[in-house]
Amino acid sequence: MNAPFEQPAAAGKIMLVGIGPGSVDHMTQRARDAIAEADVVIGYVTYIKLVADLIEGKEIIRKSMTEELDRAVSALEAARAGKKVALISSGDAGVYGMAGPTYEVLFQSGWTPEDPVQVEIIPGASALNSCAALVGAPLTHDFCAISLSDLLTPWPTIARRLDAVAMADFVVALYNPKSGRRTRQIVEAQRLFLRHRRPDTPVAIVKSAYRRRENIVFTTLDCMADADIGMLSTVLIGNSNTFVRDGLMVTPRGYSNKYDMQEGGATREGERAGRSLSTGLLGWLDTLRAEHDAGAGIEALAAQYRLPADYIRATLDEPWEAETGTAADGSEA
Amino acid sequence: MNAPFEQPAAAGKIMLVGIGPGSVDHMTQRARDAIAEADVVIGYVTYIKLVADLIEGKEIIRKSMTEELDRAVSALEAARAGKKVALISSGDAGVYGMAGPTYEVLFQSGWTPEDPVQVEIIPGASALNSCAALVGAPLTHDFCAISLSDLLTPWPTIARRLDAVAMADFVVALYNPKSGRRTRQIVEAQRLFLRHRRPDTPVAIVKSAYRRRENIVFTTLDCMADADIGMLSTVLIGNSNTFVRDGLMVTPRGYSNKYDMQEGGATREGERAGRSLSTGLLGWLDTLRAEHDAGAGIEALAAQYRLPADYIRATLDEPWEAETGTAADGSEA
Question: What pTM did the predictor assign?
Answer without folding.
Answer: 0.93
